[in-house]
Amino acid sequence: MSTFTKPSMQTSSRDDAVQLNRAFKGLGCDAAVVVNILAHRNASQRDSIQQEYETLFSDDLKKQLAHELHGHLKKAVLLWMKSPIERDVTTLRQALTGPIIDVKAATEIICTRTSSQIRQIKQVYAPTFGTRLEFDIECHTSDVHKKFLLAFIAITRYDGPEIDSVLVEDDAKAINKIGVKKSGVDESTFIQIFTERSSAHLIALASVFHKMSGKELGKTIKRETSGNFKYALLTILQYADDPTKHYATVLRKATKGLGTDDSTLIRILVTRAEIDLQKIEEEFLKKYKRPLPEVVHSETSAHYRAFLLSLLDSKY
């Protein structure tokens, strides 16, 4: 379920565009107005506002926002104004080629997308940036992790609920053999299974593997693999099992300890706000005994805080 709620009063996209333009006038930007409008408009309304803004003022609203806003608020609002596919391609590009390479962010996006979504990403990525996604992965990842990601985005996986029980058992046996080998890890087995099998297959595989070996598949992955390759496998497995638990865990890691991983916090809250953020909130509270809005409030400030809390539909 989405946390997103439409404004209680009817508003017009034209009025919103006019108010935003006024917010940009004078010395500095009235960021409170930007937050109060955009954080409470759904995707269709945001698109309409952008169209009205261009019609009225012959200007691109996103470019104006990029000019007027700053810091984390700017990053969050600009991501919010994009379509889901635009969010994925821009975040992937930044993660793979930006000033700070964030391989884990790129890995998480890729490994939580369906084959059809990845196909769309690749179709948009190349004309947008003048290079193929495969090329950026090739240049900015390494070793078995690179091999895995390239295979994952190249293969079309079945996304339905049906499974082949014989194949599930064969995969469980193959992984179990890895654990009893005395030297080396058969990475090709993990690559084949985790790039070719559906989410439903992987859920069944974890169950069959546990019955067969007495071991948890996730713990076996942690023991037998390492680094970003391990992160990719665990991301796929955890997301297949329960996306809300996966995102709750990601948010916890982004907000615990010294400092906040604002890029991850923004990415998850913005991309899930109109999908399942309410369920993620519920899972976060259940697992970590703290309300997510309380955590966001403690880790952020000013208009940036107000924007994220609005996405959470929180009056905290």
From TrEMBL:
Pfam families xref list: Annexin
UniProt GO MF annotations: calcium ion binding; calcium-dependent phospholipid binding; phosphatidylserine binding
GO biological-process terms attached to the record: response to cold; response to heat; response to salt stress; response to water deprivation
Keywords assigned: Annexin, Calcium, Calcium/phospholipid-binding, Repeat
Record flagged with keyword Calcium: yes
GO cellular component term of the entry, any: plasma membrane
Family of this protein: Belongs to the annexin family.
The record's note on its domains: A pair of annexin repeats may form one binding site for calcium and phospholipid.
PANTHER family: ANNEXIN
Protein name per the record: Annexin
Organism: Salix koriyanagi
Lineage: Eukaryota, Viridiplantae, Streptophyta, Embryophyta, Tracheophyta
